[in-house]
Amino acid sequence: MAVKSILMVCRGNICRSPMAEGFFLHQLKEHRSILSIRSAGLNALVDRPADANALAIMQQRGIDISAHRASQITYDFVQKADLVLVMTQSQLQTLTRQFVTAKGKTFMLGHWQQFEIEDPYTQPSAAFEYTYRQIELAWQDWKTRILSC
Fold first, then answer.
1. Taking a C-beta distance cutoff of 8 angstroms, is the pair 65, 38 a contact?
2. Residue 72's domain spans which residues?
3. Which of 40, 48, 52, 109 has the fewest CB neighbours in a 10 Å radius?
4. Which residue in 10, 11, 38, 51 is the catalytic one?
């Protein structure tokens, strides 16, 4: 199955998932005509912008996520996504319990190396830097799988 739509999911949708969304969009900018990437939260802080530390870390790398506003995950978001990427095993279990259509297309972002991306919310900027590096590492595993579909 071709991957044309990716949904990034975390808890509040103000740190990890918008960072991952922005990173993947930046990496796939030449493929935007065939790829849609969005993010949402299991307990989203609806309409809040991305955390200031997340904004700063991404901006330092030339990735602008300033337009981001947190969204609550919905059945429609999950239904439309070809691939759903979550940050932790717990989120994977919650999402696949809540949305039957998520089964078989939902994975941890760190799936291929079996790592979770912990929430940097309320932590110093070093935690956000670490989150960015984990997203970057996960991208290396996902890019060929996404682009070869």
1. no
2. 5-142
3. 52
4. 10
* pLDDT at res. 148: 77
Residue 32 among the catalytic residues: no
Q: Check if 47 is active-site.
A: no
Asked if residue 148 is part of any domain, the answer here is: no
Q: Where are the beta strands (DSSP E) in the chain?
A: 5-10, 36-41, 83-86, 106-108
Three-state secondary-structure class, residue 117: coil
State the Cα–Cα distance between residues 80 and 82, nearest whole angstrom. 7
User: Is residue 13's pLDDT more than 90?
Assistant: yes
Q: Which CATH number is 124's domain given? A: 3.40.50.2300
Q: Which of 11, 16, 38, 51 is catalytic?
A: 16
Residue 58 lies in a domain: yes
48 among known catalytic residues: no
Which of 48, 69, 82, 119 is flagged as catalytic?
Answer: 119
Please state the separation of Cα 68 from the chain's center in Å: 12
Residue 111 in any domain: the answer is: yes
Q: Number of folded domains in the chain? A: 1
147: in domain: no
